[in-house]
Amino acid sequence: MSTTGFGILSFGAYLPRARLQRAAIHAANAWFAPGLKALAKGERAVRNWDEDSITMGVEAARDCLGGFERSAVAQLVLASTTLPFGDRHNAGVVANALQLPSALRALDLAGGQRAGSSALAAALQQGGADGHTLIVAADARKAKAASVQEMQYGDGAAALLVGHGEPLAKLLAAHSETVDFVHQYRMHDRAHDYAWEERWVRDEGYLKIVPRAVAALLAEARVDAGAVAHFCMPGTLSRIQAAVAKRCGLPDESVRDNLGGVCGDTGVAHPLLLLAATLEDAKPGDRILLAAFGEGCDALLFEVTPAIAKASGRRGVKGALGRRREDGNYMRCLAFNGLLDMERGMRAEPDKPTPLSVLYRNRDMVQGLVGGRCRSCGTVQYPRQRYCVNPECNALDSQDDYAFSERSGTLMSYTADALTYSPDPPTYFGMVAFDGGGRMLLDFTEVEPGKIDVGLPVRMVFRIKDQDPLRGFQRYFWKATPA
Amino acid sequence: MATGIKDKVVILGMGCSKFGERWDCNAQDLMVEAFEEALADAGIERKQIDAAWLGTALEEQHLGKSAVPLAMTLRLPYIPVTRVENYCATGTEALRGAVYAVASGAADIALALGVEKLKDTGYGGLPQRGRGALNDLFWPNLSAPGSFAQLAAAYRAKHGANKADLKRAMAHISVKSHDNGAKNPKAHLRNRITEDDVLRAPMIAEPLGLYDCCGVSDGSACAIVTTPDIARGLGKKDLVAVKALQVAVSNGQELQFDQWDGSYFATTRIAAARAYKEAGITRPREQVSLVDVHDCFSVTELVTMEDLQLSPEGTAIRDVLDGFYDAGGPVPCQIDGGLKCFGHPIGASGLRMVYEMVLQLQGRAGQRQLKAPTWGVTHNLGGFPSQNVAAISVIGAYGA
Q1: Is B294 designated active site?
Q2: Whole-angstrom Cα distance, residue A330 to residue A326?
Q3: Which of B178, B188, B294, B344 is catalytic?
Q4: What's this model's pTM, rounded to 2 decimal places?
Q5: How does pLDDT run across B158-203, given as a tens digit for each residue?
């Protein structure tokens, strides 16, 4: 098998660090919904207050793009049913954060659980003549208190880079079925999903629609079901993966865990997340069958290449799963998801307008964390002002763009500020000195109390900076987080 | 070569309102209170004032913009009146305007008044406001204690100080200021506290607890300045002169250039060096009689002792714990209670410091009077450790 070709060049994953314990959900709701006890095992990845599908998508994309030229990305697809903006190109925010070139075809894709898998199938079938396609899938679905979804959903993102190069996996075939079988739905003006009875979903949905798609796929690829090494399929119904595999004639041992126990079902991200997790374990020559169910089914068959052995350096799904903090604070999770009307105090009252003209002029500086490097004296600085900050230089308009987002740093100073308003007090912030020069006074996120001091290594993450409830806007910036 | 301000301008009169939670009055009433005292102290009539400066920082909180509120409130007779604002160093900036006007000969008698009415926000602490359309997009959502708490972490790291020693020195600073404030009838906080009270107080911004933070107060202070000749002509004796008045403003080096380590105020060091030179002070630790510094937070006072060349670098913790800056020590600091206990009505604070210097130098400081002080230094700071305005004055007997 030749090493060059067209296929999946890279993958990346992101899960929020907090893992809400399902036992905590059950403990809080047992008085009302004792039946949840059956689901009260394991944990779900839950977003921080400053995370959404855009920020998680950016993190998965950064993981995926490690070692790749970002200028080679010609198309970006952001797939999610929980895009924060109904009218604003959400993918455009991701592109700006990643500093992708403006000569970019970018698409927001929503409308169902298969948004990510359909985007992947389309990119692989397009052929990638004009450059790489970056597919980012992310979801942060809300669930009502004491609902089954609250137990099953998780927040997360996955990204895949498709193009010509040394693919880790090549597509053998793809087949999609589109059937208006509505097992759950959410209209635009609603916060939460409405679901139909599980037994009907299993018998009439999964067990009929997926096998039809898989059969067509295997026939097209001329691959025997028995030759599939890995079968990945999201789905929260009990033992649904094994039941579908059996119905399709796939080997029992090919059935991959759906990661429900360790992170929950991450919605649109989940098919890609399961594929990424499988690629981490796969050997050259393995055949991976990915099936994504939802008003039909996407079925994709891959063959893993020898290049998989060289695929390293990313955090991936294993890294994301390992990077965790057990969270038993159910109340905080409710508050972050707007289910608790907290008294936020007067310090939450100040207006937070975002002048869009200012944001536009400074979009690379703010959303891309781009500063400057002086051509005269070499000083690296942020923000990039007209005059160089070096007192021995002070040259005018002497700076080239200098991106800080992928640079690590160390803390010079910090505090835990309990006075200023934060949805998750206290607010940690301080001065960061970047490796290679430059410094910034920055908000921190994901700090563990007592585990912070001067000298702590940090990396940058793209997060929600402020929310503007008056105008229904939120703005993004970068924060430092323990490396 | 500039000749400096030394002995060109004297204080003709000073006034200061009672600081505190002045639920009884508006900003205008506070201004009148300080002005009446200053006018009586100066022994002049308002029509003798040639020019005036108003210092107020948070105009949206009380008076609104411009100098009109000063002219309206004091019924100033259509003279030039200017409003200045430079963060918490606003009071000293107002004084600088008046002093420079007299020194230049443009005015015979000039007035500086600072005022702030902070207790109408509905909560403790300073109000949080936007910081500019662009800054708001990337600045941390910090509070004042949060930004000054950064000093503690950086100071510890630089000098290898342990948390407990630093916290104890900070506690000593607050206990000392409460002891001093208790003796000051105009002070906002007049209760004594113990080191234990400080150490056990709720945390505001690690490691700053409640008692590491200064009072947020309503108040006003006022200075009337003139030339030594005019003062003598008005029958004044024991003239107190401005020996130096210096301001240094950050230009971004602390925040953006890789040199500053976060443990001190670059501006204070520069302004202090200039002020000592202007005044002719060569050995501050030996020569300065008393100092009133911008102790918005205990840790600010601690590092400022080094920035003002009073404690050698890295020794402020020891000096503080040894009582070097206590009322009975070699260089009493915050003898009037400081921002910590006299209170911190932002625009008034720089002028309030000078008020205390004049009282001390003229032997009018009552219970807290020090023995024969000669040089008083005020240090008024605005902003954040990484970007700020430092304003320093040296006050002393005229001709000394």
Answers
A1: no
A2: 11
A3: B344
A4: 0.96
A5: 999 999 999 999 999 999 999 999 999 999 999 999 999 999 999 9
Residue boundaries of the structural domains of chain A: 5-184+194-336, 346-367+406-482, 370-403
Sign of CA dihedral A241, A244, A248, A252: positive
Q: Strand order of the sheet with strand A296-304? A: A105-109, A73-79, A132-139, A156-165, A5-14, A169-178, A296-304, A287-293, A230-232
B143-207+239-397 shares the fold of B10-121+218-233 = yes
Given an 8 Å threshold on Cβ–Cβ distance, is A439 in contact with B138? no
Comparing CB atoms, the residue among B121, B146, B253 nearest residue A415 is B146
Q: Do A431 and B262 touch (CB under 8 A)?
A: yes
| C-beta of residue A247 within 8 angstroms of C-beta of residue A136 | no
B217: its two tokens: 């107060």
Nearest to B35 by CA among B53, B20, B22, B21: B53
pLDDT digits (tens, 9 = 90+) for A80-108: 999 999 999 999 999 999 999 999 999 99
- Residue extents of the structural domains in chain B: 10-121+218-233, 143-207+239-397
Contact A206, A235 (CB under 8 A): yes
Residues of A in contact with B126 (CB under 8 A): none
Is the minimum CB–CB distance between B253 and chain A shorter than 8 Å? Answer: yes
Q: Active-site residue B344, yes or no?
A: yes
Q: What is the C-alpha to C-alpha distance for residues B174 and B302, in angstroms, rounded to an integer?
A: 11
Mean pLDDT in residue range B147-151 = 98
Q: Is B255 left (phi over 0), alpha (psi -120 to 50) or beta?
A: alpha
Superfamily assignment of B143-207+239-397 in CATH? Thiolase/Chalcone synthase (3.40.47.10)
> In chain A, how long is the greatest CA-to-CA distance?
75
Proportion of chain B in helix, strand, coil states, percent, rounded to 5: 40, 20, 40
pLDDT digits (tens, 9 = 90+) for A101-111: 999 999 999 98
- The letter for the amino acid at B188 is H
Using a CB-CB distance cutoff of 8 angstroms, which residues of chain B are in contact with residue A366? 137-138
Cβ contact B145–A419 (<8 Å): yes
Rounded distance, CA A442 to CA A465, Å?
A: 11
Asked if the C-beta of B132 comes within 8 angstroms of chain A's C-beta atoms, the answer is no
The CATH class of B10-121+218-233 is alpha beta
The candidate with the shortest Cα–Cα distance to B345, out of B395, B290, B296, B394, is: B296
Residue A482's Cβ-count burial label (10 Å; 0-12, 13-18, 19+) is middle
Is there a contact between B252 and A385 if contact means CB atoms under 8 Å apart?
yes
CA atoms within 13 A on the CB side of A92: 8
Strands of the A380-381 sheet, one edge to the other: A380-381, A370-374, A399-403
Is residue B129 within 8 angstroms of chain A, CB to CB? yes
Calculate how close chain B gets to A323, using CA atoms only, in Å. Answer: 25
Overall fold of domain A5-184+194-336: Peroxisomal Thiolase; Chain A, domain 1 (3.40.47)
- Inter-CA distances, B170 with A330, B23, B233, B322, B328, Å: 38, 31, 47, 13, 18
> How far, in whole angstroms, is CA B9 from its chain's centroid?
19
Q: Which long-range contacts (CB under 8 A, 24 or more apart) does B59-64 make?
A: B59/B83, B59/B85, B60/B129, B61/B116, B61/B117, B61/B118, B61/B120, B61/B121, B61/B127, B62/B26, B62/B27, B62/B115, B62/B116, B62/B117, B62/B120, B63/B27, B63/B28, B63/B115, B63/B117
Q: Say which of B16, B88, B222, B341 is annotated catalytic.
A: B88
